[in-house]
Amino acid sequence: MSTISSLIRHSGNWNNENCYVNFKIDAVAFKEYSTYIDLLQAVATQLNIDMQLKNIYIKYIVEGNDTPMEIHNDMSVRVCVELKKDNKQLAMYPLCITTTDKKLYTCVSGESCIEGGFLQIGYIKQTNAMETVVSGDLASSSCGNAVVVFENDTNLVISDKNQKEVVVDQVYKDKDTLKAVMANYAISNRFNFRAERSNAISYTLVCVSEECDWKFRASSVGSHIRMRKSDKNEFLYLFIALYAFIKGFDCCRPIVVVDGSHLKTAYNGTFVSASTLDGAGNILPLAYGVIDSENDRSWTWFFERFREAYGVRENMCIVSDRHESINKAVSRIYPNVPHYACIWHLWGNVCKKYKKSHDVLSPVFYAMAKAYTQEDFDELMGKVEKADFRVAEYLELAGREKWARVYATANRGWTMTSNIAECINRHLVAARELPIFDFLEEVRKMFGRWNYNNRKNGIYTFTTLGKKFQEMLSINEYLCLRMTAEPSTEYLYTVYDAGRRFIVNLDNKTCSCRMFQIDEIPCPHAWAVIKKKNLMVDDYCFELFKRHTVVKTYDVAVDPLPDEREWKIPTYISEDVVLPPRYKRPPGRPKKKRDKPLFELLLGKKRHACITCGQTGHNRRSCSNTPRRK
User: Fold this and answer.
1) I need a surface site. Which of 94, 397, 410, 509 has the fewest CB within 10 A?
2) 356 and 395 share a domain?
3) pLDDT tens-digit map of 76-89
4) Are 99 and 185 in contact (CB under 8 A)?
5) Burial class (CB within 10 angstroms; exposed 0-12, middle 13-18, buried 19+) of 208
6) 403 with 535, same domain?
7) Treating both helix axes as pointing N-terminal to C-terminal, what angle do 389-398 and 343-353 enclose, rounded to 10 degrees?
8) Contact 530, 537 (CB under 8 A)
9) Together in a domain, 531 and 508
10) Is the distance from CB of 95 to CB of 28 less than 8 angstroms?
């Protein structure tokens, strides 16, 4: 994804001749497919502008036009980007920034509350031991605001955006309805809030005044399900994030793998999914749905719903194939989240483009992508350049940070491919021929089985870590037996391994081989120090890999679906009209299998190797060889 650099003129003013004068100079960089909000945030960050207190206006001057052009929506951002792409000089088309104070309202106590904001209230809770109030009383805060709280009929689902009352335990149709209600309510009562927490299962609002300690909370204990129709009421998109998986994601690394696969029904369509790995190395589905096809609009809609359900976590990253629509959607919805490429798909593109080199360079490329240190990476890249410099240039253009673990800005661990999403698609090959309702029910039942089995396996695990990482830990323990460790300080050691030396710092959980930092379990060198000091290895393993965290991941079960005659469907749903998509039968006989590319046919049948020693012909259960060195 290309980046646009632009000069900024700020702290100035426009004179009568439409010239921006008395300004200061700065610069900003933003992504090519940034939205208007993304550009505002980039400018505010660079110039240290508080967007809660200031309105930001962006203008630029085009040659031959005396009137400055104002950037006020996504389309005007696209126009500016196209101009900058045609002329990439930094000083061309500088962005002229002006700011104004936002309009303020005064609370009863005299505190300032800012107009506007993003609001959602389900129930009211006062901090400092204040109880929730019902039956027409007033819930008052330290800043003097009084909010009327009414009794609520829990069977009523509110869908009217002009709702006047804010009710304790009130139930709303969706988040958009509640946002509209609260926006009107805040204006009419002359007070305001800011969002303290926002995701699919909880929303917390606090007063804009830091001295005020009252708090409003809205919560959901259900799944996040959304559907979109066309103007003709024809089905377009469906998004499903089950509550069990929303809760479970908090106990997993924030690594999201997305992929899509074609449906084989009469109306075609594409099944899309997002998933991750739990602390035992099992697949945890996060969200799934159906879209018309893999295009910019559908993937953007999917990621918008995914962000509503899961928000943004620290050190979060996304892994997928290099589909252009996915790249655009991620850059728009998650502009600050690293987006990495599946190395298997990337190497497949290399094999298609340079057919003579893939047999020799395939093991070199995979070793290079998984390298822990830059020295190992550079050595392997030198081999690629000697064998075929065209392949090296192609990989450089793809961006090292996209596929090489050593250059990744967020720790992607062992999630180097999109195989876990491909695994989901593989299990649904037969189900993809079913009608849409039956297909979605098969998906739900399969994920429910996985949820139950993973929880059962976690409960009956009696090792320190989950299965996958316990195996890695055991191999590292065996490899450390012939190493020697010499202390420098209480926690700083030099470890000698086959003529090489490595620096281990147990206090910071680091090793110069970088396996300790990336795998987040003790590497062989760290193991040598732990054994020498007779320490507990549990204290140096990542918390999310431990047994109790794996069990906690599956605390919430996937509930069974009752018989259709027992369903209690709200009126606004039963009256909703959803027509099937427009049907167009493709020519030819329907395909049961995909057409394999040439490089897959040339590879032949893959021979599985033992995970312990790396040799073929047996697996780890019957292996009697010495474990290989990593």
Assistant:
1) 397
2) yes
3) 888 888 888 888 78
4) no
5) buried
6) no
7) 140
8) yes
9) yes
10) yes
